[in-house]
Amino acid sequence: xxEKTVYVCSSCGFESAKWLGKCPGCDSWGTMxxxxxxxxxxxxxxxxxxxxxAKEIQKLQEVETVSFQRFSSGSKELDRxxxxxxxxGSIVLCGGDPGIGxxxxxxxVCDYVAKDKKVLYVSAEESSxxxxxxxxxxxCNSNNIYISAQIDIDEICAQISSNKPDMAVIDSxxxxxxxxLSSAPGTVSQVRECASRLMRIAKENDVTVFTVGxxxxxxxxxxxxxxxxxxxxxxxxxxxxxxxxxxxRAKKNRFGSTNEIGVFEMEEKGMMDVLNxxxxxxxxxxxxxxxxxxxxxxxxxxxxMVEIQALTxxxxxNNPRRVGSGVDHSKMVTLIAVLEKRxxxxxxxQDVYVSIxxxxxxxxxxxxxxMLASITSAYKNVPLPEDCVxxxxxxxxxxxxxxxxxxxxxxECVKLGFKKVILPIGNKRxxxxxxxxxLLFADNVFTALSFLFVKGKND
Length: 459
Description:
Layout: E1 2-9, E2 15-16, E3 32-39, H1 76-82, E4 91-95, H2 102-113, E5 119-123, H3 128-137, E6 145-148, H4 153-163, E7 167-171, H5 188-205, E8 208-213, H6 226-230, E9 233-238, E10 245-253, E11 261-267, E12 270-273, H7 277-281, E13 292-299, E14 302-314, E15 322-325, H8 329-342, E16 350-356, H9 368-380, E17 388-390, E18 393-394, E19 400-401, H10 406-415, E20 420-424, E21 438-442, H11 445-453
Parallel strand pairs: 4-8, 4-9, 5-6, 5-7, 7-8, 15-16, 17-20, 20-21
Antiparallel strand pairs: 1-2, 1-3, 9-10, 10-11, 11-12, 13-14, 14-16, 18-19
Helix pairs in contact: 4-5, 8-9
């Protein structure tokens, strides 16, 4: 075994023989860390007289497919995010800010699954006593949950192989280490090796493995990107620190749709499902307020009603502030430019703040029109109709483009009692004559805003 020194980017895993101030792989500054690795000599390999035999190849048509039977996690919202339930033999990565509820939710899942299955909970951050205290608080008292306070990946894999649980939880992947690597726990090489070992042990023993991942200050999972490539499913917890509501979003899922969300509420008894998220994302206002607009967003397969709030005010600086929470900042700046150029609104001396009520983040194009309308309402100080929903993508020339899933969105609007929906004219061909709700079609932002601000258009 030979040893050599390499410099590895802690953000993307790029390796270099010398230190670099800026990583060529991800353009991050100051992320190249020195690591000592061991390499095999080049002359070591398979010999002609070795007993190794390659596995015979198969035709694709001859491969036997084994139908896997999902099992429930005990949470309807988590099952939705996973694509219908937990898949045996899969490895799931759950990330989120500290204290957001990752360990709490997984311990509740362990308690439910352990009713008829064997569960192993490996805590690499807390002692068994701390896990027991949390279990007592959450009333998790199943007899089939086994606890191990272990950080050695060799010991963890040996425990999984010998005890053969149906599900294992590793909390967390950044604190587990491989003793044969000289680098510290949490480094790129350690995280990559430990995740690979867990993936192999999960596939070989048909064990479902849940791993907890730390996040960086930018909100992304700590460690190399290869960590997300190894696992089958990646889930992120989102939510405001002072809010009781949490949003669990699937960023990657080999067994279901991506961008699916589950909504939870943090209570004394743990993470509780929120079966009707449209209610919590709508603000509890008693009267119409300027600067608010309502839209129906499609999150995975679920329509969710959300409220966009905007605020404008005279700026005391040469460069006015543009602050967005839950929305894409570049999209917000683009829409402000459309308002200035196409509609003649003078926003160059105005601070503009945009937020999504409830802490949800919306990235789909349908948010363009309601965001633009909320900014206009705040600038004019004129409230929008409370019974009206807006949806549509806005182009740079001010035109409106059609959005997907329009039938689901309209059904959600009808269910919640809204009276009018403003849509792009491109969606008219895909909608049959609707009697339950009034549909207003517009081809550009000027026409759409005229339905809201010109007297008589929205009667």
